[in-house]
């Protein structure tokens, strides 16, 4: 007879163990926290943008519908906008914006091609990378002062042209030439930042695509068109938009030092016009109206560029 031991109770066969409720609650809490985490992290940035960007923008738009001088603070409807478009200087500024849009592909293609050569490691590419980026660290005032001396009627550039039999050019005094001179200096001084962005985009490029193009016997222009451009479409979109914004909002220093808006107002841009109305003529409401027009121009041009580039990328 075997000794009887104490009976041990166990779960009956066929019965399922009930789920642990505390663990489920912790899982639910964890998933809820994970969903809320991105919003919590984005909240400070959103608050800063709303407080320092969107709210002042709305205040500026509202202020543009008020008067200046004796009508300060009173609603004047669209009078400021009618004054703007009736001002020959502002119309000149808008024409120059159209010129910037036409020259924008050149301002983007230049750093893009240089970045391509650096990526392909042409001889001396390390030196070129530093030399090309150097102008981007210079102040616009310094760049403007340097090129004012270089482009003077009796300056080194005209001396060089005279040595090869070409007559002197009044780079900053001819209304038909001055805006091209200022834009050219701006492109030279700022394309280093776009070059860095393109080089960052090249770091994501699949090198096997270039090898395949080389095996197929593709020329450099064909490789750029059919391999590099489609692969860097998002980078190109970014550079297009940021370059256009820079042209419209970062040329004040050059304009002020090199031409002061002249000759005869031919180098006016909306940014310079806004400063004249606000800083010299004490017409802040009119300056707010010009700022609103500039914002709308940047918005429309930026969206149009993105749409065109996306369509071109899909076609490729």
Automatic annotation (TrEMBL):
Give positions of region: Disordered: 1-31
A cellular component term (GO) from this record? Answer: plasma membrane
Q: Which SUPFAM superfamilies match?
A: MetI-like
Q: Where is the ABC transmembrane type-1 domain?
A: 89-305
Q: Which InterPro entries match?
A: ABC_transporter_permease (IPR051393), MetI-like (IPR000515), MetI-like_sf (IPR035906)
- What subcellular compartments does it reside in? Cell membrane
Write out the entry's keywords from A to Z. Answer: Cell membrane, Membrane, Transmembrane, Transmembrane helix, Transport
The domain of life for this entry's organism is: Bacteria
What is the recorded membrane topology of this protein?
Multi-pass membrane protein
Enumerate the Pfam families for this protein. BPD_transp_1
Q: Indicate the transmembrane segments per the record.
A: 36-55, 97-120, 132-153, 177-200, 238-258, 285-309
Low complexity compositional bias, start-end: 1-18
For whether the record's keyword set contains Cell membrane, the answer is yes
GO annotations under biological process? transmembrane transport
Family from the record: Belongs to the binding-protein-dependent transport system permease family.
UniProt-recorded name of the protein? Sugar ABC transporter permease
UniProt organism field: Amycolatopsis balhimycina DSM 5908
């Amino acid at each position: 007879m075997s000794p009887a031991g104490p009976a041990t109770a166990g779960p009956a066969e066929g019965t399922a163990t009930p789920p642990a409720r505390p663990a489920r609650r912790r899982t639910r809490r964890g998933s809820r926290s994970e969903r809320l985490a991105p919003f919590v992290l984005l909240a400070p940035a959103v608050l800063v943008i709303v407080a320092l960007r969107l709210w002042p923008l709305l205040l500026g738009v509202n202020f543009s519908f008020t008067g200046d001088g004796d009508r300060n603070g009173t609603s004047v409807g669209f009078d400021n906008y009618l004054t703007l478009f009736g001002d020959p200087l502002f119309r000149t500024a808008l024409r120059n914006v159209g010129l910037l849009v036409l020259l924008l592909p050149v301002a983007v293609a230049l750093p893009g091609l240089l970045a391509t050569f650096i990526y392909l490691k042409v001889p001396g590419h390390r030196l070129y990378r530093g030399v090309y980026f150097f102008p981007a660290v210079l102040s616009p005032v310094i760049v403007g002062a340097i090129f004012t001396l270089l482009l003077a009627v009796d300056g080194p550039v005209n001396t060089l042209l005279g040595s090869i039999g070409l007559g002197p050019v009044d780079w900053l005094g001819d209304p038909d030439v001055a805006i091209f001179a200022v834009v050219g200096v701006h492109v030279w001084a700022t394309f280093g930042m776009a070059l860095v962005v393109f080089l960052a985009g090249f770091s994501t490029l699949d090198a096997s695509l270039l090898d395949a193009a080389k095996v197929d016997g593709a020329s450099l222009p064909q490789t750029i068109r059919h391999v590099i451009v489609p692969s860097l479409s998002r980078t190109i979109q970014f550079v297009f938009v940021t370059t256009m914004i820079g042209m419209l909002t970062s040329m004040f220093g050059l304009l002020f030092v090199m031409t002061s808006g002249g000759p005869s107002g031919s180098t006016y841009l909306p940014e310079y016009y806004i400063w004249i109305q606000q800083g010299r003529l004490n017409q802040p409401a009119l300056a707010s109206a010009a700022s609103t027009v500039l914002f709308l121009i940047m918005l429309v041009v930026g969206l149009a560029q993105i749409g065109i580039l996306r369509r071109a990328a899909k076609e490729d």
